[in-house]
């Protein structure tokens, strides 16, 4: 009896690669190309700011960026822009709160390339409500976006991560100085930092490390908190040897 497409089939068909550099990923499980020679960095939450800057920074270091974000149009535009800059780039549009879809996307990146050397996590939810107007369901939804999806992404990437692989996370000063008008953001960033510590402890025996970069300022181009400067700090943190590893680094801006 004929069957309709599964969720995995739909995700595979939505999975887009550069036709000239990586080729289009086929939907069949055995159809992955093998033998990628460049290391791969998966950027979860690849928007036009920090996410794009991280992809570019790692691309300049010889990595192939693999982008995940929610908006198909904006993501494709970013992917094609990175390709035009000479970076081997792939992307797939996924709502990170859809756990199975996010895991499938990460696994397909790993299966296509053979390994995942770096995963950077950037999503957060911005709900402009104070603690008396924010509902419990809204808070839990924001935590699913800004915290729980990190767990999904790392668990999906783990089978493809060799010794020396790294997980980095965009943290924020809201973890220490939350804004009363955006109550859920501080909860997200504090929980995210704690989750990173737990992930690092679980991954460290295999020489895979996790850390968060706490951005202690407002992200804006042309300022000490330019996304490119933040991306530099994330890249440099990821190159740190395990003997000197810190699970949190504060970024206080660069002149």
How would you characterize the overall build of this protein?
The protein has helices at 7-14, 50-60, 72-84, 99-113, 136-157, 183-203, 227-238; strands spanning 16-17, 40-44, 64-69, 90-93, 118-121, 166-172, 209-215, 248-251. It has 255 residues and is α/β, with parallel strands linked by helices. The protein has one domain (37-251): NAD(P)-binding Rossmann-like Domain (Rossmann fold, 3-Layer(aba) Sandwich). Strand 2 (40-44), helix 2 and strand 3 form a beta-alpha-beta unit. Helix 1 (7-14) packs across helix 4. The chain is globular.
Question: What descriptors fit this protein?
Answer:
255 residues; disordered N terminus; eight-stranded mixed beta sheet; Rossmann fold; 7 helices; 15% strand; alpha/beta; 8 strands
Total of DSSP H or I helical runs spanning 4+ residues: 7
In the CATH scheme, the class would be Alpha Beta
Please identify which CATH superfamily we are dealing with: NAD(P)-binding Rossmann-like Domain
Give me the strand/helix succession.
HEEHEHEHEHEHEHE
| Sheet of most strands | 8 strands, mixed
Q: What overall geometry do the principal axes of the alpha carbons give?
A: globular
Contiguous uncertain segments of 5+ residues: 1-35
């Amino acid at each position: 009896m004929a069957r309709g497409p599964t969720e995995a089939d739909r995700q595979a068909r939505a999975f887009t690669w550069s036709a000239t550099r990586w080729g289009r990923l086929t939907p069949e499980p055995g159809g992955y190309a093998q033998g990628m020679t460049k290391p791969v960095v998966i950027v979860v939450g690849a928007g036009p700011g920090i996410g794009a800057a991280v992809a570019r920074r790692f691309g300049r270091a010889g990595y192939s960026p693999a982008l995940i974000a929610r908006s198909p149009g904006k993501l494709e535009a970013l992917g094609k822009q990175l390709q035009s800059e000479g970076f081997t780039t792939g992307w797939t549009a996924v709502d990170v709160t859809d756990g199975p879809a996010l895991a499938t996307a990460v696994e397909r990146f790993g299966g296509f390339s053979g390994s995942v050397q770096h995963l950077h996590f950037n999503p957060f939810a911005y709900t402009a409500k104070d603690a008396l107007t924010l509902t419990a369901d809204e808070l839990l939804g924001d935590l699913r976006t800004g915290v729980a999806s990190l767990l999904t992404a790392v668990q999906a990437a783990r089978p493809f991560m060799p010794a020396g692989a790294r997980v980095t996370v965009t943290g924020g000063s809201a973890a220490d100085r939350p804004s009363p008008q955006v109550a859920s953001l501080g909860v997200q960033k504090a929980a995210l930092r704690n989750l990173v510590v737990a992930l690092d402890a679980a991954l460290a025996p295999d020489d895979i490390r996790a850390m968060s970069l706490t951005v202690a300022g407002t992200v804006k181009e042309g300022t000490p908190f330019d996304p490119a400067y933040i991306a530099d700090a994330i890249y440099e943190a990821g190159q740190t040897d395990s003997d000197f590893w810190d699970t949190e680094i504060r970024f206080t801006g660069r002149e």
